[in-house]
């Protein structure tokens, strides 16, 4: 008997050819196809819901001025490297794929366009941030000649060391508390003329509160006491001093205190009394000077008090 292949197909259908290779291999092939299709579909759904990571960047305030802290948010799969006006600042995680970078500005910055460069594993984004000018109050100070006492570098070295802190845990959230009662007697950023000469490097690096000696001073936010200096231990200019590390580069310094209630290493809660207003150090009368630093630069505390940062 002779078998015509075409006849065979016509009689038994196209599957008769495949049957030769066995039913097992057919089902194997089909399963492979089904699984592949399933995986491709899953990948497509995932891709639609998770678009290719691009560096998305936002900052607040959108129109910053001298003294403002710029709150930069970066959407990035891994920790980005951020440089602003030529200086690198650390990024801290704010949840999966979201990073926060605090950028300090001061009255000493030149207003105008600043370069912002964000890098994440090969992806680079460049932006121009317009830093607006701002008018600061000025003071004219007359200094009698010839009585300049030698400055003891010790206290400034201690304060400079404190200002380098940028510890990873964040202890601040929302608005900071007013550190003491009493009127504001000198605002942030005041510039000075000494004997008629503009002091290029001077600006008032904090806020002064004119409260009486003994008025409690509280921590504006939680943090670690990372600096305690005393007038009788060579803090002749700052007087009795407490530095609080609020974490992630935010620091408070309280100077001219009459009393210190904490020691280095203590952890304080927002609102906890850390000492009292005084007139220690180089002052003309009792007041609290509160300096607020972001990555070592004294920024305007007002936005931190009024709007707050998260
Ligand atoms: Zn002051």
* Quaternary state of the chains: single chain
How much of the sequence lies in strands comes to 25-35%
Q: Helical amount among residues, as a percent range?
A: 10-25%
List of distinct ligands in this structure? zinc ion
The number of helical elements comes to: 5
What is the averaged pLDDT score? Answer: 89
Series of H and E elements: HHHEEEEEEEEEHEEEEEEEEEEEEEH
* Spans where pLDDT lies below 50 across 5 or more residues: 14-19
Shape: elongated
Extended strand count: 22
- How many angstroms does the end-to-end distance come to? 89 Å
Q: Nearest-angstrom radius of gyration?
A: 32 Å
Give the class from helix and strand content and strand pairing: alpha+beta
Q: How many strands, what sense, and barrel or not for the largest sheet? A: 8 strands, antiparallel
Task: Give an overview of the whole structure.
It is a single chain. By secondary structure, the protein is α+β, with helices and mostly antiparallel strands. The protein contains five helices and 22 strands. 19% of the residues lie in helices and 34% in strands. The strands form five sheets. Strands 10, 13, 15, 16, 17, 19, 21 and 22 form an eight-stranded antiparallel beta sheet that branches. A four-stranded antiparallel beta sheet has the order 1-2-6-5, with no helix packed on it. It is elongated and about 95 Å long. Mean pLDDT is 89; it is low at 14-19. Zinc ion binds next to loops.
């Amino acid at each position: 008997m002779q078998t015509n292949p075409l006849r065979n197909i016509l009689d038994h259908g196209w599957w008769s050819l495949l049957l030769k290779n066995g039913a097992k291999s057919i089902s194997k092939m089909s399963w492979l196809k089904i699984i592949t299709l399933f995986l491709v579909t899953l990948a497509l759904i995932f891709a639609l819901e998770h678009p290719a990571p691009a560096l998305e960047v936002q900052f607040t305030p959108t129109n910053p001025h001298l003294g403002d802290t710029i709150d930069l948010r970066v959407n990035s799969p891994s920790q980005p490297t951020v440089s602003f006006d030529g200086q690198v600042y650390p990024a801290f995680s704010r949840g999966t794929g979201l990073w926060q970078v605090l950028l300090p500005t001061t009255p000493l910055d030149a207003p105008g366009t600043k370069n912002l460069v964000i890098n994440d594993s090969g992806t680079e984004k460049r932006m121009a941030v317009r830093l607006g000018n701002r008018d600061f109050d000025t003071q004219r100070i007359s200094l009698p000649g010839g009585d300049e006492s030698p400055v003891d570098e010790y206290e400034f070295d201690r304060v400079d060391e404190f200002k380098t802190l940028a510890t990873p845990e964040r202890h601040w959230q929302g608005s900071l508390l007013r550190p003491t009662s009493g009127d504001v007697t000198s605002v942030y950023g005041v510039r000075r003329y000494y004997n008629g000469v503009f002091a290029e490097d001077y600006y008032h690096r904090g806020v002064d509160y004119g409260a009486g000696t003994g008025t409690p001073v509280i921590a504006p936010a939680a943090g670690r006491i990372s600096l305690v200096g005393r007038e009788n231990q060579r803090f002749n200019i700052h007087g009795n001093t407490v530095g609080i590390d609020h974490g992630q580069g935010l620091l408070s310094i309280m100077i001219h205190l009459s009393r210190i209630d904490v020691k280095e290493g203590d952890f304080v809660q927002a609102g906890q009394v850390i000492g009292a207003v005084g007139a220690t150090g180089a002052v003309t009368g009792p007041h609290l000077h509160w300096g607020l630093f972001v990555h070592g630069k004294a920024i305007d505390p007002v936005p931190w008090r009024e709007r707050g940062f998260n």
